[in-house]
Amino acid sequence: MERRTFLSQTCKLCLLGASTLLLPELLSGCSSTAVFKTTPTNNQAVMPLSLFAQTNLNYLRLKGSFFDIAVQKKEDNSFSALLLVCTHQENQLFPTSNGFICNMHGSIFDKEGNVKKGPAEKSLKSYRTEVVGENIIIHL
Question: pTM for the full model?
């Protein structure tokens, strides 16, 4: 078998295997949740509480930042904010029904940002949040 043919066939097998393992996780996180864009001021980002009227999870995109922040409303009406960057090799994370996944090497994180499957070993970076009036303040 020629080297070119061998490489072509084995690459197709690798892609098929990876898509079989990761595609269900990626598709299960598909949603119509919009991304709220804002410019941080004094190391803080402000997000309106009204965004959480229909969903408990929204995404925050800061001007000048490559990675989004997942802002989640918890059952006790408090909020958490997680930076969606894999702690393994700084790749963008994607939402799933149970948390977040890195499509580069397959690391999986739960909704609280804890590692459920490596190669990542560290939890996601979290930010302190507080509710002030009709807004959520994310302390960066």
Answer: 0.76
